[in-house]
């Protein structure tokens, strides 16, 4: 993971945005392209992609990170539509909480065990392009 340089939208530059795009967006696209041909051939599979809640409800202090997450979210929703009826399912999960116990004071937190059922539910139901975990 690239070092996290937080930048507001007006402070965002190619230099502090590019690592986020490469890690969050390009990494997911690369991973999906590695498995998608076999899934399409089999007519089955699930692709679940995760971003922070800023992909849906942006937070100015994370303007550069949210931009990369928003790009991934848009791409996943588009992929979901493209794959409709193929047996392959793609969905986006936005996590709008801190994960773990050591988060900043006043920020809602959840454990991985609390979040995991959302992924399983998406995989089992396969009926929505995205879900938001708020704790």
From TrEMBL:
Pfam families: adh_short. The lineage of its organism: Bacteria, Bacillati, Actinomycetota, Actinomycetes, Kitasatosporales. It comes from Streptomyces xiangluensis. This is SDR family NAD(P)-dependent oxidoreductase. InterPro entries: NAD(P)-bd_dom_sf, SDR_fam.
